[in-house]
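Q: Sequence in, structure out?
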Amino acid sequence: MNIRTYTNNDWPRLCAIHDAARVFELQAAGLPDAYLSLEQTGKNEGLFDGDIVVAEIDGEVQGFAAWCQGELTWLYVDPASFRQGTGRQLLRHAIAAHEGQLDTEVLQGNEAALALYLSEGFTIVEHSHGKLAGNEGFSASGYVLRHGEAI
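A: Exactly. Output:
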């Protein structure tokens, strides 16, 4: 697996990965009607505000992660690559590339993502309830997770 910096040529693949994986994420959270594509949400939700990396296997992007100012904001893997270590490697890369505390959020019901974060040393620091980021017409519950200490 090769993890490298995102380039503009990766955009179509990121959209395909996000859009397929987001369906699973929202179904797990009981929010399938809240789906919006990456094309609809990426810029408004800060995808390009910080660092973005992609994970390639045999030259094809299989997942991506983004973080900014102490928060892991995006981590998506192609559903065809679920449970093959792509998400874990992206998460480990983000942790290693970021000094100090790193926070992220997981929707309640997304047990696979929660288990991944907990297994990599994140702890639940808050249960959150409010509007779904990116599609505020829906209410959602989730967890705020933290890795490391503030510098």
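The longest helix spans residues 11-28.
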